[in-house]
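*** Protein under study ***
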Amino acid sequence: MLLQERATHGNLQILLQNKRFEPSTEVLIGIFLQILDAMIYIGSQDVVLSNLCCSNVLVFRMEPINSSANLVKLTNFSMACRKNSSYADNIQTAISVRYCAPEILKSTDQSNYSEASDVYSFGVLMWEACSQGKVPYGRDTSDDNIRQRRLNDEQLSPPNSCNNQLWTIIGFCLYRTPEMCDTMEQIQSKLLEIPKELYPPKSPPGISEPILLVQCKNCHKEFPWNQLDIHERSCLPPVPVRKRPSDEPSIWERLCSCLSWFHKSK
């Protein structure tokens, strides 16, 4: 039996696609740096992940503005293999033609997995995250079509809101020649060098981000959607109050009536 830590918010791809998480450029870069920390460690163990994409990034904490308040972790090591080993030696799983490096597509036995192929996949992951979870190479469901389009040298277009320096770094990951790709450490250094003043603002100055408010079913007050669950755990439904009919005597009237009866009985 395998026990796995529960990711509170699910995976990064679904969060982005459903617009439940719209991170600023600073937050995205912070997430990329967390992933790079994991990938640098994995590489130091002579392991190639071979399956790097947004759907394999679990989100434990998310905050669209504050970079330090986010926490992500990698999952799904089913395709991991030793460096310079043939993937045929590992558990057989269909490769993802949208994320894998060109040298993997061209090989017959998928024997070209290396740190450079993980770097290429990381470039596609960054493109996907900057595109708000858009599927690389469109929604064509045919792997054969995607493979052929990529072998015909079809390239990913820059995302609309992507920082120019960030797009340049993504480009360093997507070289078709593995020897020209940056290492994970080089990508990490370049991301850290992007000046924060070059980050595009998440919203115009002076205008706060819209927050989705949801009504509590118990107290009927409105709360931010991501805080409602916490509130409802401690919010009890109100105790119903019985309304007194208009013709029913009040307590004071009843008391006066009792006193009057008491005096008469004497």
Summary: The chain has nine helices and six strands. Residues 206-235 form one domain. Residues 25-44 form the longest helix (20 residues).
